[in-house]
Amino acid sequence: MCGIWAYIVSQIEKQGVHKSLNESILYENFMRISHRGPDRSKFINLPKQCISLGFHRLSIMDTSTRGDQPFVIERDNRTIYALCNGEIYNHKYLEDYYGIKTTSGSDCEFIPQLYHQIGMEGLWYALTEGEYVSGEFAIIILDINKDTGDYIVNVARDRFGVRPLYYAKYSNGTYCFSSELMGIPNNHSGITIKEINQFDPGWTSYLFKKDGKMYTDVGIPKLLKYVSQSADLDVAKLVVKQQLELACKDRLTSDRKIGFLLSGGLDSSLVCAISAKYLKEMGVEMQTFSIGLEESTDEYYAKLVADHIDSKHTHVKFTNEQFIEAVDDVVYFIATYDITTVRASVGQYLICKWIAENTDIKVLLIGDGSDELFGGYRYFLKAPNEKEYEEEIIKLLTNIHRFDGQRADRGVARNGLEARLPFLDHRLVDTVMAIHPSLRMPKDGVEKWLLRESFRGTGLLPDEVLFRTKEAFSDGVSTVKKSWYQILQEKYEAEVLPKTAEEDFKHYEHCPPHTKEAMHYRDVFEGHYGAVSQYVIPYFWLPNQSWVGNVTDPSARVLDCYSNEEKTED
């Protein structure tokens, strides 16, 4: 997990302005994302092009300075700079296939050379469509013609936005790219932000500077379109099992110590149990971690799994007060006001903070992405038919980078750690989405039925966990008697209500808050990022209301398909 940053000045600005911005504003904003790369930082100015590039490194593959970025190559009359926040787990396959020689053990050093060989479109497809290639990335490549001074800035992001990237376009045509929203300069020096948002996953875009003028290409979207084919259950179970095992195995490659978040739910438990097999073969001790308030529902199941797979497990308990104290900081760190994302991010941030302060672990494997891929949320029990089920899955995968994907990255990266998500491996996603939805839908009141059946009878997990029903992370950290969402609602109803008039709710046109809790998150968010950033979420994450009725709270514990007597999961 690293931080990448770029500031591309339009032809309207003069070099002197760019220099002053570098001294007073640009470097300061670049350093705001330094937590993503605590090992080393590099900031360079290219005055002839009026461009600044920056990189914060968390060294995972080859911890020496040979792996520092940007990578720079000279070819013909071109100078190519490459920034990549990513992990290309089997990069050696690409290096061998294309005959690329590297000088470090970094998994990203080959990128500018491969770009030079096959161009940006070819590079994108090589990283995301190949049968033998696995990885996630956000990339910025600057390609300068040394003879003319013209250049192209190439920008790309992996299909599911596992690695973050934001952009801002200013009133004078200048652009800024940053791994996190907090790294983008606000209105300054007489120019204002015209547009700010996440760079869409699965896109490649270009900025051209030719003959002194700036041009842009809106990008080429890689839409999520799948054709369901196989309705053979035995084949489906086999390929799901094989691809998830491969995704976990690939993500165990690291020159730094690896740990695992284990809530005791199906998803994190599968990732841990599969990885445990490979780590034992490697002679490496597995360390797992869980978090909860007093009497949290996750604690029992996490310890059950840890004993089953023989991991060194740590369960960290926090008080209600510690959770509440972290809320405002978390809204800033994760850069969202989405209700369920904020709630779930508090626990993720706190456990990662504990891991960073008490261990030497730098990489964490986590179970996020499974619910979007396999329809694991409790409201999927209400899916009326295969068509609507499939449409909801594609919607969730398309927007995961704004919700659970965002939480998975920011809560971990804030603490100088790297998150790896086996369930969003593109080969696994393509495999699952090629299975007929009749096999993927809930059966007999059991969500993620196909995933569970794929590991039935293997002994990988206790049946008590393999068939444990879904529990959201933001719910599982608390008790059924009093959920985390109820603790938050009580706090903000009591503290905000006397000070807030009813008309304040009408102040917001986009995603207006409907509770005092939501109002608080929005106020904190805009206090840091301003109203111009409100479109970073398109809507509040909620269960499909056409299935479950007019539900306004994202917690599964408010749904009629949730029972207090049920055992619960991640």
From TrEMBL:
Q: Which UniProt keywords apply?
A: Amino-acid biosynthesis, Asparagine biosynthesis, ATP-binding, Ligase, Nucleotide-binding
Where the record annotates domain Glutamine amidotransferase type-2, the positions are 2-210
Query: Could you tell me which InterPro entries the record lists for this protein?
Result: Asn_synth_AEB, Asn_synthase, Asn_Synthetase, GATase_2_dom, Ntn_hydrolases_N, Rossmann-like_a/b/a_fold
Query: Tell me, what is an example of a GO biological process annotation in this record?
Result: asparagine biosynthetic process
Record's catalysed reaction(s): L-aspartate + L-glutamine + ATP + H2O = L-asparagine + L-glutamate + AMP + diphosphate + H(+)
Which pathway does the database say it acts in?
Amino-acid biosynthesis; L-asparagine biosynthesis; L-asparagine from L-aspartate (L-Gln route): step 1/1
CC per GO annotation: cytosol
Under Enzyme Commission nomenclature, its number is: 6.3.5.4
Write out the transmembrane intervals.
none
Gene Ontology MF annotations: asparagine synthase (glutamine-hydrolyzing) activity; ATP binding
Please give the name of this protein: asparagine synthase (glutamine-hydrolyzing)
